[in-house]
Write a structure and sequence with these properties.
Layout lengths: L3 E7 L3 H11 L9 E7 L2 H10 L4 E5 L7 H11 L6 E5 L5 H6 L4 E4 L4 H19 L1
Parallel strand pairs: 1-2, 1-3, 3-4, 4-5
Helix pairs in contact: 1-5
């Protein structure tokens, strides 16, 4: 993996995107690279960035409007070759089964709890690094 990891963050809510940035800090764990963010507020922007390439992990807001992160996750898993792993932000713990349906690799509840979020993101970055090696 390169010296930095690129994390795409999709949410129509700028506060949610900020929660993700603050919970991550410079890096979510000491054994993973520093993180650079690509922020998207629309589904079209997500697809455009993924088509461009260079994204290591996607963080998608399952509560976003008009298109939720779960539907976008399922779409990109079908349409994007070598789709990066996805961390879904879900509204309730009971929605975890929907995260599984969408084929997300991990899910955490909103509002973002920094320790839980950082651990989930670091796990996906480690997996990505192991697959790239």
């Amino acid at each position: 993996m390169q010296p930095t990891a690129t994390v795409l963050v999709y949410s129509d809510d700028s506060n949610t995107r900020e929660q993700v940035r603050l919970a991550t800090g410079r890096r979510p764990a000491t054994d993973v690279p520093q993180v650079e963010f690509v922020e998207c507020a629309t589904p079209a922007a997500v697809i455009k960035e993924l088509d461009r390439g260079g994204i290591d992990v996607c963080v998608l807001d399952g509560e976003a409007v008009p298109a939720g992160g779960m539907g976008i996750c399922r779409q990109i898993k079908d349409e994007i070759f070598d789709c990066p792993p996805v961390l879904l932000l879900i509204g309730r713990p009971q929605d975890a089964w929907l995260a599984t349906w969408s084929r997300a690799e991990a899910a955490v509840t909103l509002p973002v709890e920094p320790v839980e979020f950082a651990a989930a993101l670091a796990g996906l970055l480690r997996s990505k690094r192991a697959l790239s090696a």
